[in-house]
Design goal:
This protein is of the alpha+beta class and 183 residues long. The chain has helices at residues 79-90, 137-149, 174-180, and strands at residues 3-10, 15-20, 25-28, 33-40, 43-48, 51-55, 108-115, 121-127, 154-161. The chain is globular and about 45 Å long.
Length: 183
């Protein structure tokens, strides 16, 4: 569900958050006051004292919201099931400036999943930005990494921001082009 608002919020407990656009993480203390400016893909953007912070859906209870459910796989999940869930999780990652997910924007260039001997998985993702000077790269990489790490059996996730090939409008899905009026 997408939400644009200026809903006031008081943190009900200490909460880990990522600074936008840098992606650096820290703790927002219980009692801090702010405004929810955006809610997309289960994550929240909160404005506090001149800064924007990304609150992961798993920590939504800290701001009085329902926590994001943990993705699940059946016991007999195939490699294809895992891959589908990884892509579904990436579709829950939104560019903070464009309310379209990174997959539909055509920002994900590569997603390699390696099954390890112990049954866990390692994932390497190459993604790009809509413009080389975009300051949102760190926060987008953080969001993708955190959401993909939620997938059962995923042990580690590496997200690399790349610029080759350069991103272009032709990489967007038809739905994304329609939503942005580029069709």
């Amino acid at each position: 569900m997408a939400m644009q608002s200026n809903e006031p919020v008081v943190f009900e407990r200490d909460c880990e958050a990522a600074l936008i656009p840098a992606g650096d993480t820290g703790t927002i203390p219980q009692g801090a006051e702010g405004m929810i400016t955006q809610a997309l893909g289960g994550s929240y953007t909160v404005y506090i004292q001149g800064n924007l912070f990304r609150i992961d859906g798993k920590d939504a209870d800290a701001i009085g919201k329902e926590p994001e459910p943990t993705p699940e796989l059946p016991d007999n999940a195939s490699d294809e099931d895992v891959e589908q869930l990884v892509w579904d999780q990436m579709r829950r990652c939104f560019d903070p400036e464009i309310p379209i997910n990174v997959v539909e924007l055509g920002l994900v260039y590569r997603c390699d999943i390696t099954l390890k001997d112990d049954g866990s998985r390692s994932i390497e993702i190459d993604m790009t930005l809509t413009a080389p000077g975009c300051g949102m790269g760190d926060i987008l990489a953080y969001d993708v990494r955190e959401k993909v790490k939620m997938v059962p059996t995923v042990e580690d996730v590496k997200v690399e921001i790349v610029f080759d090939p350069p991103w272009g409008i032709e990489m967007m899905s038809e739905a994304a082009k329609l939503q942005t009026g580029m069709m």
